[in-house]
Amino acid sequence: MSPERRSILVEQVGLWLVTLLLIRGGVSLWEAGVHEAVLALVPVLFMYMPDLALRQRGLDPSAYPLGLPSRHDPVWRQALVLNAVIIGAVALPFIGLYHLWQTEVFGMHYRGTWPSQPLMLIGYHLFFVAIPEEMYYRGFMQSRLDEVWKPRWNILGATLGPGWLVTCVLFAFGHSLVVFQWWHFAIIIPSLAFGWLRAKTGDVIAGAFFHAWCHITVGFLDTLYGVIPP
C-alpha cells in the first residue's frame, strides 16, 4: 500500500474514532441530565467533521457528495425510483420476519397502537439520523476508502470495492461505540444497500431515503407491537 493510501486509511479510522467518541460524550451528558439539545451534536458532527478533515488536507469538500443535490437534479427522481423498487421487494418479507421475531422469540403481540407523533418520527429519522449519517459514512468515508481500494466489482449496475464493505463494518460497529446493543452487527445488512445506492447514483440522497425508511418502519412496528410506548 502506498504512503498516500495508508494516510487516507489512518485518516478515516482516526476521524471515525474521534467523531464517535465526541458523540458518545454528548450522549453521556444527556444521560447525566443535560438538556436534550446537546444531542444536536450528533448530526452536526456527522455533517461537518468530513468538511473540516478535507479542508485540513487541502482538498475541496465540494468534490465529495457531502450535501443535498439541487432540487432540479435528476438524482432525486432516481432516488425515489430505486427506493420504490427496493422497498417494494423487501417490505413484506421484513414485516413478516419482524412479526415472527417479536411473537415467537419475545412473546409480544400486535396491539395496533400507532405512534402518537408520526410526523416527528419521520422527520427525526430522515433529517436527524439518515441524512447526516449517509453524508458521513457514504458521502465521505466510502468515497475516501474508494481512493484506497479502487472499486472493481460490478454489482447490479453499481461499481463497488472493498471500501464499501469496510464502511459497512465501521458503520455497524460505530453504533456500539456510542450505545452498545448486541444486535448492532445486523446493521451491516441494510448498510450494504445504502452503499450500493451511493455507488449507483453517485450521491447520498437515495441511501438516506432507504436508511430513513428502515428506521421509520421499525419505529412504527415497535409501537404497533408494544415494544416502545407510543
Helices and strands in order:
Blueprint: H1 3-31, H2 41-56, H3 75-105, H4 118-148, E1 153-155, E2 158-160, H5 162-178, H6 188-201, H7 205-224
Antiparallel strand pairs: 1-2
Helix pairs in contact: 1-2, 1-4, 1-5, 2-4, 3-7, 4-5, 4-7, 5-6, 6-7
Relevant terms:
230 residues; mainly alpha; two-stranded antiparallel sheet; 7 helices; 2 strands
What features would you describe in this structure?
A hairpin with a 2-residue loop joins β1 and β2. This protein has a two-stranded antiparallel ribbon. The protein has one domain (3-224). The termini are far apart. The protein has helices at 3-31, 41-56, 75-105, 118-148, 162-178, 188-201, 205-224, and strands spanning 153-155, 158-160. The model has no long low-confidence stretch (mean pLDDT 97). The relative contact order is 0.15. It is built from seven helices and two strands. It is mainly α. Helices cover 69% and strands 3% of the residues.
Q: Separation of termini?
A: 52 Å
- Tally the beta strands: 2
Mean pLDDT: 97
- Summarize the main sheet: 2 strands, antiparallel
Task: Specify the overall morphology.
Answer: globular
Structural class: mainly alpha
The total tally of domains equals: 1
Order of helices and strands: HHHHEEHHH
Low-confidence stretches: none
| Cα radius of gyration in angstroms | 18 Å
Number of H- or I-type helical stretches: 7
Strand proportion: under 5%
Strand order of the largest sheet: 1-2
Helix amount: 55-70%
